[in-house]
Amino acid sequence: MKMKTTLHTDWTVEDLCKGFIFDQNENKGLFGLDGQLIIQPEYQRNYIYGDGTRDVAVVESLLKGYPLGLIYFVLNKDGKYEVLDGQQRITSFGRFVNETWKFAVNWRGKPRYMDSLDDDDRNRILHAPLTIYVCEGEPSEIEAWFETINIAGVPLVKQELRNAAYHGPFVTLARKEFSNTNNANMNRWRTYVSGDPKRQAILERALDWVSNGKIEDYMALHRNDTQIDELKKYFDTVMEWIDSVFEYTGKEICGLDWGRLYNSYHENSYSKDKVQERVAELLDDPQVTDKKGIFEYILGGEKDTKLLNIRVFDKVTAKKVYAKQTKEAEKKGVSNCPLCALGNDNNAKRIYKFNEMDADHVTAWSKGGLTDISNCQMLCKTHNRAKGNK
């Protein structure tokens, strides 16, 4: 069946607010249109307009007589409707009109709630006509359209699109666990996982870790599951592993690829006290310019210094060392690359140009060497690369 759309301009704000229910525990609008409208179906994003700015803007638009833009419903087989696009706007004016999780708008110079508006202003809101398209079609067609829609100008993120494509009991349970800001574990989770849980950031990471990066495959396989035990267990296991290794909970530890790090290093043993001591030392080291790389550097046995992006010599220092080194080499009749000067080939007496050489630490940073002029030498690019690969 080809998707069919029907335009409705006869519904008003008052119609949609009849029987409006908002669940503050789940932070979402549930029903409207006298029980005939499901405001936030399971595939929809969480309500994100409750910030005192965007929710207020929706109501102010109605007071000023501005249109709210197109709204899309889906007609289900049971005759009820689901909001495909517009749930943020509907939930915002529903909250205001029904005074559920009340908020005020600044109108005519004063903060106003619905019950404190003048009759004409109140009626302007209630009788505001809405432009709503009702869609009928196969789930795949509805989902494909949903992927192209922006809700009130806020683009859908990738995980919200996945929730739409694989909606079912599994997504419903997963969102209830990982997208619920009232979850007692949320602060702990957000220590290590960056992003907004309302925009599905925590859920996306949990799925990424358990699926080893194959989120769509995992969601398709488990779409109709009525439990999320495996997902929760794997996520909790990674969290517990991080806690067992690292005492540090500062901003640098947040947003790392913990799923990959767990897979790579969870079978290794670590002393939490020694790890914490080393983390503190590296955080205080001015030579370490990538503080987020510290944690993988320690997990990997402190072998890959590229993770730390050790501070390099600036151009002024390099030129001073080049000039001194070249002058001394010319006096001795040897190459200005000290490693070439030790050889017996044609480069033993070669004087390299500045742009043919790299500044290098005489004593490596890993052995206590500093990034200052006293620890700087110029090497030809060939020898510097060879030294760096050892």
Offer a few descriptive terms.
40% helix; seven-stranded mixed β-sheet; 16 helices; 390 residues; 12% strand; alpha+beta; 3 domains
Structure summarized in a few sentences:
This protein is an alpha+beta fold. The chain has 16 helices and eleven strands.
Question: What does this entry look like structurally?
Answer:
The structure is a single chain. This protein is an alpha+beta fold. It folds into 3 domains: 4-156, no CATH class; 186-308, no CATH class; 315-388, no CATH class. It is 40% helix and 12% strand. It contains 16 helices and 11 strands. The strands form 3 sheets. A 7-stranded mixed beta sheet has the order 1-9-5-6-4-3-2. The chain has a two-stranded antiparallel ribbon with strand order 7-8. Strands 10-11 form a two-stranded antiparallel sheet. A hairpin with a 2-residue loop joins strand 7 (105-107) and strand 8 (110-112). Helix 2 (54-63) crosses helix 3 and helix 9 packs across helix 10 (215-222).
Topology:
Blueprint: E1 4-8, H1 13-17, E2 21-23, E3 28-32, E4 37-38, H2 54-63, E5 71-75, E6 81-85, H3 87-98, E7 105-107, E8 110-112, H4 119-126, E9 132-136, H5 139-146, H6 158-165, H7 169-178, H8 186-192, H9 201-211, H10 215-222, H11 229-245, H12 258-265, H13 272-284, H14 294-299, H15 315-332, E10 357-361, E11 376-380, H16 381-388
Parallel strand pairs: 4-6, 5-9
Antiparallel strand pairs: 1-9, 2-3, 3-4, 5-6, 7-8, 10-11
